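Friendly challenge for the regulars: who can give me the structure tokens for this chain first? No prize, just bragging rights.
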Amino acid sequence: MDDVGEYLEEFAMNDWACQTGMRWLAHLYRFENMIEPIGKALLA
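First reply, four minutes later:
Bragging rights claimed.
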């Protein structure tokens, strides 16, 4: 189980580094707008 946790931590850190993280941040507003109606419906 510890090996899996270490792998996930390393994967997550690498996933957000450099170009991948910058691309995700560039599209953050669009992603949030896509899921906003779902969140509002769930809270209604």
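Residues 2-43 form one domain. The longest helix spans residues 28-43. Your move, everyone else.
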